[in-house]
Design goal:
The chain is an alpha/beta fold. Helices cover about 35% and strands about 15% of the residues. Strands 3-4-2-1-5-6-7 form a 7-stranded parallel β-sheet, with helices on both faces. Helix 5 runs parallel beside helix 10. Bound molecules: zinc ion (ZN).
Amino acid sequence: MLTMGGGWHSPPRVGIRALARDDAGQTEPAGAGPAAASRERSATPAHVAGTVLWDVDTQVDFMLPDGKLYVHGAEETAPAMRALVDAARAAGVVHVASADDHELTDPELVEEPDFRNTYPPHCLRGTRGARKIPETDQDDPLPLGEIPIPPGLLAERVRGRRELLLLKKNFDVFTNANANALLDILDPDEIVLFGVATDVCNDAAIRGLLLRGRSVTFVEDAARGLDEERTASCTAAWREAGVRFATTVDAVTALRRPSG
Ligand SMILES: [Zn+2]
């Protein structure tokens, strides 16, 4: 479904100004005017009912300074991430998380990585580094591994579950055979996405979601990139493709709206 312009909300340009990063040389697009913004807001209840919070790889190895593939400054975003996860929990909004679940035999892991297609060992199954940070932890997720579940059975298992966990062996969440089917089952009007790293796993997730015709809001202050320049080019490309940008404060407010 294409919901370009039919938005969950659109005033979030403040999010870009709120960022400390100003070296990317990006200028803000004209964006929708106040009239368009209020039109979109009036459509909010229906859209928020179909909102999914999409949490990308908020795991110890990426998020904490002693992690094996630490994303610089990621730990500073943990309180924002907690606010999003708590708001979703309080509002009954579905929380989809992806998580790397590596074994040393995975093709992505090499000793001399290029940090594009290959990376040093990280998020090894069963290790502390693979755990989600406490701020984004899920209480009782349905874990979905790499073995495809028959679509009818998947729908049955997903029914009534608020927390889903997509385990993956590659930076692209859509390499998990169940990711596409899960998206079809949830069929969200809007996906509010945050996590790490902006220029790797967030980028793969957002591009994958856009390819599937999904409407995405990126919570920029609840995310960090590995490489500053590459992060700037990712966010510029997303913006061009219609991704909306929100601050955590905006996103939390919108998530809370359905429960009053
Ligand atoms: Zn990985």
